[in-house]
Amino acid sequence: MDSKRRERSNAGMSLIEVIVAVSIFSIAAAVLLQSFVTSQRINKKSNLYLEATTVAQNIMEEIKSKDFEDVSLAFNYPIDVLTGQSRLSFLNSDKSRINTGEANSIGVREIVKDGDEYNDVRLYNSLDGDNTSRVTASVISKDNGVTYEFNPRKTGDNAGKYYFELTNVTNNHETFDALVKFDGGRSSGYKKKTATNNEEGKNDYLAPNISKLDTKTNAFLIMGKNWDENAMNVIATEQLQAAQKLWAQDLADYIRGASEEEQKRLTEEFTSQYPRPTEKLSTEDIYAQTKRTLYVKIEESGGTIKTEAKYVLNTYDYVKKGGNKYERMDICPCHGQSENGKVSGCFCTYESAYWTFYSSEADTKLKNLYVFYYPNYESKSSTKPLDRIVIENTDNYPAKVYVTKQRDEEENTPTSAQENSYRMSLTVKESPVKLEQINWNTNPSLYKAQTKLRTNLDYNISDFDKILTRPKISQMQLTYQAVTKDGRNDRKKTGAAAKQILSYNGLDDKTETDRIYTAIVDVYKAGAAAKGFPKEDLVASLDGAKEN
Asked: Which InterPro entries did the record assign (predicted)?
């Protein structure tokens, strides 16, 4: 019996047992294999999403770190020709692959949406001449991105909307296409600020805020209420000396040839009518009738941009109210023409030296020039205004110029009457001939200056509270003055034509609220751009907002 038990215990597995075991193992292996495959798919998908999200974050950080116009520049002229670097810093390691035309090159461009399709934008072409209206890109540059101006999209279905494309962007071992969308139009909730939409609306043109100026790319000049008190004191002192000298000459002429006795009588007669000048004229009264001319110059040399200013104070037309013939400035020998050349003995005019108030740093460009000044509300003549500002940009440097009149809060001025009667002269000088625009004046509607004018002149700023119903008025005698290569004044345009040439826009004094652009970065599988960015190829998306 024991031997039988031993024989049964040494026997192998039966066929049924083997089949059951194999079946169990197969089922377990299949489950494990399916789990492994699923895990691999999940890991691959997770890795793809992670890499796509990294690309989206890199793009979002880049566009948020730049001004909106610089974003446009980076996608239209991706390589900075001055530095050789990519304008999108996260692509600098791959800059040799940007837009090379090869299959694996990185594509960087702006596109425009037409229905469900995305098409190329049109960059500036030298064959267009001055007809920049053909440019559909959001930036205009005539020198491959060295200098540029923002070209806002204001009308049509794409008003306030901008689209930018990246293709073949690699992160680690994954390659993607990306679509960057900015929306500042109605669909983004944008509404212009008006009298009836004051709370939600946004401003397109704002009075500049000094505290927020970036001094690297913005130059600002602030002229005080009194431009030069010392100069006015010198003028008054020298006027007194000249008046005393003239008085003595007149007295000598009056008594000449008379006897000694008669001279005494004539002297008393003359001095009773014209007392000898002994006191200086009021510098405040003189300044109120002073012709003030501010010259602001923009110069570019060797890649450095510099702004300088000087001023001229001309008091020749001042006459003291109720005063005699010695209490006036037109006794000056220059006859009020000293600005046209130095006149010996002239005392009624003071000209400052030029001083530099901005000089660009390396690799920076001047974007905006701000001029703040207090108007002289005694300047009421449209033909001979007391206030004059001349912007000299004969190097044709592209920049926005803001000319802003300021309120005098201490004196609670201006009043509405002062604003309505105020007149001033504003002249912008450029040299179109240096840009080979010889016949620019034949069709000024097609010619655009390098200087863009923004100003709150021609707006009544007397009522600070009624900022949304501020009336337009006529204050500014605006001139666009062309200058020859050797510096002589050439042809000019005034009024509405000058405003058109200078792309004039008004400023207002509202509380600063920037236009908001919704920003979306969508990252797709490689090749999606060529197919119009189909939804099924979308891998990751980031939302944000961009103030501009």
From this structure: N_methyl_site (IPR012902)
